[in-house]
């Protein structure tokens, strides 16, 4: 079964191959929210082109397309590797050490898991345990 993320990525691959879909999610059942990135930055023109390409989704959803902002979502191993040394917040599917959220410096990222230096020490989190993650703004 395709996820909305996979559908959107496949659609954009042909018309906007330089656009990276960082996160595609359905919010409140009626809004399709996309965070995108582009090698030359996310401009209004890029957002408009992406919106036009996904126009038929408007039959089912309100469409929101935007840049990732300072609290950029991290969804793939390459994202975590790109931002090693930065602070991130990682929300977990299951508690680790009694916590469902870890905030700290990204110190490692393999194809299987990430390592984050939190107040209590370095925590290793397998990707399948990550519910949602993003950079911490202002760091």
Structure description:
The protein is of the alpha+beta class and 139 residues long. Helices cover 20% and strands 42% of the residues. The protein has a five-stranded antiparallel beta sheet. The chain has a three-stranded mixed beta sheet with strand order 1-2-3, with helices on one face.
Helices and strands, in order, run as HEEHEHEEEEE
What percent strand? 35-45%
Distance separating the two termini: 38 Å
**Secondary structure tally, helices:** 3
Assembly annotation: single chain
Class inferred from helices and paired strands = alpha+beta
Q: What is the number of beta strands? A: 8
User: What average pLDDT do the residues reach?
Assistant: 92
SSE map:
Elements: H1 4-15, E1 20-27, E2 31-37, H2 44-53, E3 62-66, H3 77-82, E4 87-96, E5 99-109, E6 113-118, E7 121-126, E8 130-135
Parallel strand pairs: 2-3
Antiparallel strand pairs: 1-2, 4-5, 4-8, 5-6, 6-7
Q: What keyword list fits this structure?
A:
139 residues, 3 helices, three-stranded mixed beta sheet, elongated, alpha+beta, single chain, five-stranded antiparallel beta sheet
Write a compact overview of the structure shown.
This protein has 139 residues and is α+β, with helices and mostly antiparallel strands. Helices cover 20% and strands 42% of the residues.
